[in-house]
Amino acid sequence: MSANAQKEFYNRASSFYANTCQNGNPYFAFVLNRFLSALGPLGGKDVLEMGCSLGRFTKPLLEQKCRLTGVDFSAQSLRGLDESLRTHPLRSNLEIIEDDVCNLSRIQSRVFNVICGAHILHHVADVRAALSRAHSLLVRGGRAVFLEPNPLNPLWYIQMVVEPTRAWEVERGILNVRAAKVKEVFRAAGFVNCSVKSFGFFPPFAINGLPGLTRIEPVLESAPFLARFATLNLFVADKG
Known about the structure:
Shape: globular
Strand order of the largest sheet: 3-2-1-4-5-7-6
CATH class: Alpha Beta
Oligomer: single chain
Distance between the termini: 34 Å
CATH topology: Rossmann fold
Number of helices: 11
Strand content: 15-25%
Helix content: 25-40%
CATH architecture: 3-Layer(aba) Sandwich
Number of strands: 7
Structural class: alpha/beta
CATH superfamily: Vaccinia Virus protein VP39
């Protein structure tokens, strides 16, 4: 699907996502903890979130007391984000920009300590362009962290069949974010210390029903063969 078609889809679907996006559950807390741990301390830092959408990760990032810039190409989603955070005590630390993460043409003469994104790379038209632009906007020693679905896990394809918001035409980019391929793109964009950590073996309904299952996750992750098929890949890379 082209970038314009993706934009139109998310503009249309923004109200649905606003009504169904659930942050306050054990599964999201589990995923968020891994994401924030990879980012490291953010207090006082300049952070760019690519593909912020309606702010599922934006609010937790903002609460790390950083100076946050959220970028998305869906104007409707950004309006929803702005409305949801209008009265947040740290709202003044957030700048919202409508832009394409492949070029970020509206961000000029600025640098960031951290650039991150969750479930965004498989939606962009050119992953290398997005990561190259991220590299150019990072300070030396800055970090990039991206959370993506693992295309080797069959649960994603089942979800695309049973959930109307996960249509194949929108999610097919999952085939472009294989772990080895994305690591190669990070290196080609100029990043160093590129790593990927696979995690998440249980679907949301299981962890939300039995939060204690998260204690088993490290055991499963320690088995290389099993880890290849975890649901999520967490990519971390630095600007040398």
